[in-house]
Design brief:
Radius of gyration: 24 Å
Bound molecules: heme C
Number of strands: 4
Strand content: under 5%
Order of helices and strands: HHHHEEHHHHHHHHHHHHHHEEHHHH
Structural class: mainly alpha
Shape: globular
Number of helices: 22
Strand order of the largest sheet: 1-2
Largest sheet: 2 strands, antiparallel
Length: about 525
């Protein structure tokens, strides 16, 4: 009997282990949303009433507003496959347990959400629950969307029902085998980690020094779901903080997603946004580039589908909110330029392997000063992403290259070439180690083992950032051609050692748009 009991126990144990494992692996996934304490639902469906109460907006205005909210919430980043119909889903998420595809969220009645009521829609967005009661994978960032207002969701629903073309394209069945495909562990996860709409609303309505900061907090913590990438996750892959109130880990930098590491958005002077001004931030979110760095990997996607469409007022509110987040690491020293590396590269004496590789492969665009030709070719000197504790993004971009997409306000695209075929693991390690130590940068060295490891993890979907989609406002434009290293050197000598390297003194934002890029005022 005890034997039987033991067997049973061990069966139960292995079953729960399996589901525990399933849960952990399900959640151990890119781009994921996550968490905070939960409570029951139910009070979240008052959107119809708020619609009645809300002003005299006519149907078209409502749709236009919904479209704007869809951009602020970046729905297209996950629900539109580059090059195919908007919101028809099918974007693949590689989970350790199999492949999850995003849903068709067009108003098609068979394949999409055309039959959903507003209450059902709102519940899916805020709570991650489908009309049939099944839980959604937190790849859908509902723990952040829980904060979205009734008014915004009402407009968003109007947009998806009346402003989006229905697409009769079946959702691909998920490639997740049974029993891992069972959704009940997700329900448990949701109970434990996702905020209830009530709790989220209370947090959203907390007091702020100014209405602008309140707006910025709403956009960043809510629809923008910036924390889904930029905040560290706990053991069950829940975000360890969902708002600025939850502590200094909020937006203090997340783990690599698809091999791209989201850096800290807090006030840390070297590895965060401490040195960036509000104008730097708005330029970055509007155009994907500024004098200090450029958006690449999945941040390029976030700008491409999302932030570029936001108004100046909203971008400024987000920037001010981010600038109000104190540094997570109070001890960090601010970045100071150090001309030693530039001097070594220019004199061309006895160069280290990393210096040599940099001169041969990188200096044409990023220059011997590391200042680049910002905002077209980003600086590497003083660039927070280059000093990130985790070097994944840097190894990744050197291996695969990346394209900075054109945006409405800066239509030129610029491409960083891929060096994966040309450089060995040891060479990539040497050049990345060099840029992490040169010009006053200071971050850990990278080994060939790190490079080999990342190289193995690259899949076709992570090989490049999203190619231009139909909503891309302009095709790629030829940028200012990279200059030869010799020219770079002679150019640089005419300038003080610091050159245009980030110094805290920046040209006004307009300078970004009038920078010497041929297509800057196109469109
Ligand atoms: C970070 C990626 C991501 C973002 C951003 C995102 N979604 Fe999703 N969404 C998903 C994934 C993945 C699924 C499928 C989850 C599953 O099958 O459990 C999904 C599922 C859904 C569903 C359920 C559809 C169904 O038939 O079950 C709806 C509705 C939805 N999303 C709407 C939206 C809207 C509206 C937005 C913007 C406000 C949005 N999503 C933003 C990834 C995302
Ligand atoms: C899908 C994941 C993802 C989401 C969502 C996301 N980011 Fe990022 N972000 C990244 C990655 C990866 C980087 C590093 C690459 C780069 O610098 O572009 C980054 C970089 C940045 C940078 C540049 C920081 C630096 O030091 O150079 C800023 C600013 C930024 N993100 C702001 C935001 C804001 C604001 C939001 C929400 C509206 C957001 N991000 C949402 C992944 C993401
Ligand atoms: C032809 C010009 C060109 C060359 C050569 C080049 N890069 Fe780049 N690099 C770029 C462009 C353009 C970007 C911006 C890509 C984006 O934002 O998607 C970039 C981005 C980067 C970034 C990310 C910084 C940021 O803020 O966007 C790093 C790191 C980097 N390059 C390192 C290197 C290294 C190391 C080499 C040599 C092995 C190299 N690059 C060679 C053009 C170049």
């Amino acid at each position: 009997m005890s034997r039987f009991a033991n067997q049973r126990k061990s069966k139960i144990f292995s079953a729960s282990l399996l589901y525990g494992l399933a849960l952990a692996t399900i959640l151990a996934t890119p781009v994921f949303a996550a968490a905070a304490p939960s409570a029951p639902s139910g009070a979240d469906t008052g959107s119809d009433t708020s619609a009645g109460a809300s002003t005299s907006t006519n149907a078209q205005d409502l749709i236009t507003k919904g479209r704007y909210i869809a951009a602020a919430a970046d729905c297209a980043a996950c629900h539109t496959v580059p090059g195919s119909a908007s919101f028809a889903g099918g974007y693949a998420f590689q989970l350790p347990i199999g492949t999850l595809y995003s849903s068709n969220i067009t108003p098609d009645k068979t394949n999409g959400i055309g039959n959903w009521t507003e209450a059902q829609f709102v519940r899916a967005i805020r709570e991650g629950v489908r009309p049939d009661g099944a839980a959604l994978y937190p790849a859908m960032p509902f723990p952040s969307y829980a904060r979205m207002t009734d008014e915004d969701l009402h407009a968003l629903y109007a947009y998806f029902m009346h402003g989006v073309q229905p697409v009769a394209q079946a959702v691909r069945p998920n490639g997740i085998p049974w029993p891992l495909s069972m959704r009940f562990p997700l329900t448990v996860w949701r109970w434990v980690f996702a905020p209830s709409p009530d709790a989220a609303r209370q947090s959203t309505e907390r007091s702020f020094p100014t209405p602008e900061l309140a707006r910025g907090a709403y956009l960043v913590e809510g629809p923008g779901h910036c924390g889904a990438c930029h905040t560290k996750r706990g053991l069950a892959m829940q975000e360890t903080a969902l708002t600025a109130q939850d502590g200094p880990q909020y937006l203090a930098g997340g783990a690599a997603v698809d091999g791209w590491t989201p850096p800290s958005l807090r006030g840390d002077p070297r590895t965060g946004l401490g040195a960036w001004s509000v104008a730097d931030l708005t330029a970055f979110l509007r155009t994907g580039r500024n004098m200090r760095g450029s958006a690449f990997g999945n941040m390029d996607t976030a700008v491409h589908h999302g932030t570029q469409y936001l108004t100046d007022d909203d971008l400024t509110a987000m920037a001010r909110y981010l600038k109000a987040l104190p540094a997570a690491n109070g001890a960090e020293q601010s970045w100071q330029t150090d001309p030693a590396a530039t001097r070594a590269l220019r004199t061309g004496g006895k160069l280290t392997k990393g210096q040599r590789l940099y001169l041969d492969n990188c200096a044409a665009c990023h220059r011997s000063t590391g200042a680049g030709y910002a905002p077209a070719f980003p600086p590497l000197a003083g660039n927070p992403v280059v000093m990130n504790a985790a070097p994944d993004s840097l190894i990744h971009i050197v291996l695969t290259g990346a394209t900075l997409h054109g945006t409405q306000a800066a239509p030129s695209a610029f491409t960083m070439p891929d060096f994966g075929k040309r450089l060995s693991d040891a060479q990539v390690a040497a050049v990345v180690t060099f840029i992490r130590h040169a010009w006053g940068n200071d971050a850990s060295a990278v080994s060939d083992v790190d490079v080999a490891h990342l190289r193995k993890r690259l899949t076709p979907s992570t090989m490049q950032s999203a190619p231009p989609t139909p909503i891309d406002p302009a095709p790629a434009q030829p940028g200012s051609a990279p200059r030869a290293p010799e020219q770079d050197v002679s150019q640089d000598t005419s300038k003080p050692a610091t050159g245009p390297v980030p110094t805290g003194h920046l040209p006004p934002e307009d300078a970004l748009h009038s920078a010497p890029q041929p297509a800057m005022k196109a469109n």
